[in-house]
Amino acid sequence: MKKRYVLIGTVLVILVTMAASKPILRWMYPLYHYRIIEQSASSFNVDPMLVAAIIRVESKFKEDDVSRAGAIGLMQLMPQTAEWIAEQSGLAYDNPDDLAQPQINIRLGSWYIAYLEQRFNGNRIAAIAAYNSGPSRVDKWLKNGTWDGTLEHLDQVPVGETRHYVQRVLYNFQRYKEIYS
To answer: Is residue 58 annotated as a catalytic residue, yes or no?
Structure first.
């Protein structure tokens, strides 16, 4: 009986050690399109691990992913948002089919993250919430006191999907930083 517990304990230690090893973690948290992510993020002064975290949460790195709402590609950009980004930034974008191309999608999405971080005065939590819910909605929450823009009061965000989204992005952001930085 005692040998069984020793064996089970040994197996558990081995499994925990394996789960914490970099190769296993890199397998669990892949970083596809890293060169594109790095180039786009650095062009707009955005943390590439934040871009990777948003991609993981939005599309799980599926290039041709299309949401029920019509968001397209790795960073799940709505065609209207992509069009607005292109107008504001001067970046290349011709039609919704472009959003299935990683280079275009990640570049537009990275610019948008930079825009949101600037719009919310460097408040990354509010920027992530705005990526999900839209900047006008987050502006309204901040202006009318519904939410103060902090992680500590994230429970005040009236949209459950957005609360959960911010938590998931931040969790994945931390994981990517631990594994790849």
So the answer is: yes
CATH class as words, domain 32-180: mainly alpha
DSSP 140-170: HHHHTTS--S-STTGGG-S-HHHHHHHHHHH
Residue range 73-79: average pLDDT? 99
Q: Which residues contact 132 (CB under 8 A, 6 or more apart)?
A: 161, 162, 165, 166
Instruction: Confirm if 150 and 144 have CB atoms less than 8 A apart.
Output: no
Contact 173, 49 (CB under 8 A): yes
In 3D space, the residue among 171, 168, 179 whose CA is nearest the CA of residue 57 turns out to be: 168
Does the pLDDT value for residue 12 go beyond 80?
A: no
pLDDT confidence bin for 11, thresholds 50/70/90? confident
Name residues whose C-beta falls within 8 Å of residue 170's C-beta, 6 or more positions apart in sequence. Answer: 53, 125, 128, 151
| Structure token pair of residue 20 | 């914490």
Q: Choosing from 38, 58, 117, 178, which is the catalytic residue?
A: 58
Q: What is the mean pLDDT of the chain?
A: 95
Would you kindly state where each structural domain of the chain is located, as residue ranges? 32-180
